[in-house]
Amino acid sequence: MSGLTPCLVPENRQVVSREGARSLVDCLIVGAGFGGLGAAVGLLGSGANVVLCEALRYPGGCASSFTRGGQRYESGATLFSGFGPGQLFERWIHELELGVEFEALDPLVELRAPGLVLPVWRDR
Predict the structure, then answer these.
(1) Contact of 49 with 24, CB cutoff 8 Å
(2) How many other CB atoms are there within 10 angstroms of residue 40's CB atom?
């Protein structure tokens, strides 16, 4: 799949899956970045039937990466918060049994330029 694949929900809110199953939809969310994923999880938790559409082959929105010339690059925003005990992403990981293990790096990030490496430490 390449490019944007539109997801349309007709007025009767009935969608048909690739397998031919029909179901009613309460909410259509466009984009599987942190906002779209967060909205979907919250709505699913309240019992809504949700369709989540994403143009790429993977979720993450701006917080994703790409590979060029054998090197991996961050393409945008990086998330450092919400994974601590009782915080939003930690709760979702536990409630949804996602099997994700979070381990914070130290330094969290290094800013690099020619002749300069500036670490950003966790306790900063």
Answers:
(1) yes
(2) 18
